[in-house]
Design a protein that fits this description.
- There is one protein chain.
- The radius of gyration is 14 Å and the shape is globular.
- It is built from six helices and five strands, in the order E-H-E-H-H-E-H-E-H-E-H.
- Strands 2-1-3-4-5 form a five-stranded parallel sheet, with helices on both faces.
- It is of the alpha/beta class and 145 residues long.
Length: 145
């Protein structure tokens, strides 16, 4: 299974240690195409845009979205890039799990929470201690469909 993980890069790296935990768990389900999102060496400046260019990063990531079987997005840290990716995959009718931590004090965008349809797009509120259990439940539900 090919998994696309979405997490904030240029929108802020405050949750990178949580991203590492999520990606480690996702690797037990398949190949994570965007494992680099959890790299602590990646700053909020993003990948070296002078080497590849923003268009190359965009095109590569959209190609990975197309290849992916499922998308998991940690959406607590607001990110224009993550929002863009989620909009693209809604049109692709891919299975999506969005993870949001209410304990952050933030309120999730209505454009994300309102997209939940239980068929393809799921939003799950969680706390950090239960993230692996939430992922287990999501991937277990995929095998039943």
């Amino acid at each position: 299974m090919k998994i696309y993980f979405c997490g904030s890069i240029r929108g802020g790296r405050d949750d990178v240690h949580l991203y590492q935990k999520i990606v480690r768990k996702l690797l037990s389900y398949g190949t994570v195409l965007t494992e680099h999102v959890a790299n602590t060496d990646l700053s909020d400046a993003g990948e070296d845009s002078t080497a590849k260019g923003d268009q190359a990063i965009h095109d590569r990531d959209v190609d990975w979205l197309r290849q992916s079987d499922v998308i998991v997005a940690e959406v607590t840290q607001p990110s224009l890039g993550v929002g863009y990716e989620l909009g693209r995959v809604v049109d692709m009718k891919k299975k999506v799990l969005c993870l949001f931590r209410p304990s952050s004090g933030r309120i999730l965008s209505a454009m994300i929470r309102g997209a939940a349809d239980s068929q393809h797009f799921m939003v799950r509120d969680y706390n950090e201690e239960e993230v692996e259990k939430v992922l287990d439940q999501f991937f277990s539900s995929l095998s039943r469909t």
